[in-house]
Design goal:
Strand order of the largest sheet: 2-1-5-4-3
Number of domains: 1
Strand content: 35-45%
Shape: elongated
Number of helices: 0
Number of strands: 5
Structural class: mainly beta
Order of helices and strands: EEEEE
């Protein structure tokens, strides 16, 4: 199967810029972070629903992904995460 070319506007090698946000009010786990969080990251693929991400010592699970049709340099997706309490 041939490799797919990098998306238009992506950094060399197929790196995708995403914005990740965590809403504390949606989590009932007592160990979950109590403050909302927003951070930016780059990945070789856009994270998918169910994937786990590690940030600032905490594991998060991807709940929703909002993709953008990107015709130039910029963000490719917004990723909503929740606290992932299992290890």
């Amino acid at each position: 199967m041939p490799a797919l070319p990098p998306a238009a506007g992506s950094i060399a090698g197929g790196i995708y810029k995403v914005q990740i946000f965590y809403l504390a009010a949606r989590n009932t786990n007592p160990k979950a972070p109590v403050k909302d969080a927003l951070w930016f990251a780059t990945y070789p693929i856009i994270p998918r629903v169910g994937d786990c991400l590690f940030h600032d010592g905490v594991y998060y699970q991807v709940e929703r992904v909002f993709l953008y049709e990107n015709m130039g340099p910029g963000w490719y997706a917004d990723v909503e995460v929740s606290f992932y309490g299992r290890r």
